[in-house]
Amino acid sequence: MGAFVISKRFNDTYKFVFTSRKGKVIFTSQSYELKFEGEDDIVLIQQSIDVLVFVKLKSAAGKYYFRLLLGERHMATSRKYTTELRLLKGIEEIKKSAAVAEILDFSENTFVFPD
C-alpha cells in the first residue's frame, strides 16, 4: 500500500509526495504555505480518486510523466518514467491504493535518534 508523506521544503513551504508500496515516489504536490492546505488536498485526492484526470506528457529528453488534475486544478506532477508502461503502472498504483493510503507527517524534523 502506498503512503502520502508530508515534508517541509528548505524555503519553509510544505509539500507531499505519494510513494508506492516499494517506497518510490510516484508524484509530488505543489508547494503550500500552510501544512493544513496540503493535508486538505491529500484528503481531497483520496475522496476524488474516481474523477482525477491524469494528463500524460513526454519531456524534451524523452521521459514520460503525468500531471494530476482535479477539474481544472493542477494537484501534482509525477516523477519521470523511462517507458510509457511504467508510467501506466504508476497511475494504476495511485488508483488502487491512494484512497486508503496512510498519511505520514515528517514536516517537524524531529529526529527519532537524538545526538
TrEMBL record:
Database matches in Pfam families: DUF1508 (PF07411)
Residue stretches spanning the membrane: none
Source domain of life: Bacteria
Signal sequence, renumbered to the chain: none
Every DUF1508 domain range: 60-105
Designated name of the protein: YegP family protein
